[in-house]
Amino acid sequence: MSDLHITLRGQGVAVATAAHLLQQAGFAFAREPGLRRPVPVIMLSDPALALLRDVYGNPMLFADKPRIERRAVRWGSPEAVEMPHGAVVVSEDDLSDVLDMFPRGNVLEANAKIQQFNEFNGSFSVHAIPPFSQGETLRFGERLSSTARVTLKADAPPQTCWIEAVDAGWLFLIPDGFGQAWLLAVGGAPDVLAHDAPLIAPLIDAIEPSGGQFDTSPRMLAQLAGDGWLACGTAAIAFDPICGDGTAQAVREGILASAVIAALARGEDAGTLATHYHSLLLASLRRHLQLSLPFYANGGAGPWWHEQYAAAREGYDRTTALLAKLPEPRFALNGFDLIRRELAA
């Protein structure tokens, strides 16, 4: 029987999802945890929650966590608009308890199911941390962000989140259901941006010092897959939080990564699989940039907004041109497996 050597490098939702699905499929693998910047709070939309529940086979996953039922948005107009919203608020520890995001570096024993995978020789690595096999990064803009813990006023609705555009950036206030919240500030310090936010400022009773800045600009490695490797996670491809799809995107990356490995083990062509993986993630970033454009076009009229719109537009045009050079996808997902498109019809 051929040896199958799989290494998963890194932490986070994408690589943890891939690990779970590979284990379910009977693959043995080693894990190299590495380091990862912790995320203070995550708001899982109902579609993202449904995807996680499907992957982990648990229809009640996070059913006990605080829910967000409405969102209030003040964006490019003096008045705020309220609308229904469906999401749960979880901590990174909550996710880690389910996803095993912080392994100690284990090697799983192969089980009998591995016997059927006898076409694949050599090693395969999934990289969610540097160094990557391909180091060039395509970056579209520079959006420095920071978060701060806030205490909400007693009359702030506990099941509402708030999004507000101001002259120098935008704010996202996410309550935790217990009288406190996390404030994400994109474009400036949380206390500075909140001072100019007529929707969000009256909701805050106290604000703690910011925990430092981090980059939230959309970006991706110029090549996301190659001979014997693929890359995933926010170190490899990152979305702007403006569309709120980051966690769902990471789960989809993990599903696709595990499916690529399983298809490779069945004997599918390695180059075709690498191209398929790269093109699907490139298309996802293109779609994200397309969805971001109206937000940055309409958020404000100042220099910061013009710069961010130009960066998003340049990214959309660049990813469109790159995608046009790639072939049509040769595979389709059937559940958590990749199959040839001609067999999926």
Structure, described:
The chain is of the alpha+beta class. It folds into two domains: 5-40 and 93-141 and 217-344, 3-Layer(bba) Sandwich (FAD/NAD(P)-binding domain); 144-215. 33% of the residues lie in helices and 27% in strands. The protein is built from eight helices and 19 strands. The strands form four sheets. Strands 3, 4, 5, 8, 9, 10, 11, 12 and 13 form a nine-stranded mixed beta sheet that branches. The chain has a five-stranded mixed beta sheet with strand order 2-1-6-16-15. It starts with a strand and ends with a helix.
Output the keywords.
345 residues; alpha+beta; FAD/NAD(P)-binding domain; 2 domains; 9-stranded mixed β-sheet; 5-stranded mixed β-sheet; 8 helices; 19 strands; 33% helix; globular
Name the helicity range.
25-40%
* Percent strand: 25-35%
Instruction: Please identify the top-level CATH class of the largest domain.
Output: Alpha Beta
In the CATH hierarchy, what is the architecture of the largest domain at level 2?
Answer: 3-Layer(bba) Sandwich
CATH topology term of the largest domain: FAD/NAD(P)-binding domain
Structural class: alpha+beta
Number of strands: 19
Continuous helix count: 8
Low-confidence stretches: 104-119
Rounded to the nearest angstrom, the radius of gyration is 21 Å
Global morphology: globular
Task: Quote the distance from N terminus to C terminus.
Answer: 33 Å
Please, what is the CATH homologous superfamily of the largest domain? FAD/NAD(P)-binding domain
How many domain modules? 2
The SSE order reads: EHEEHEEHEEEEEEHEEEEEEHHHEEH
Overall pLDDT: 90
The largest β sheet comes out as: 9 strands, mixed
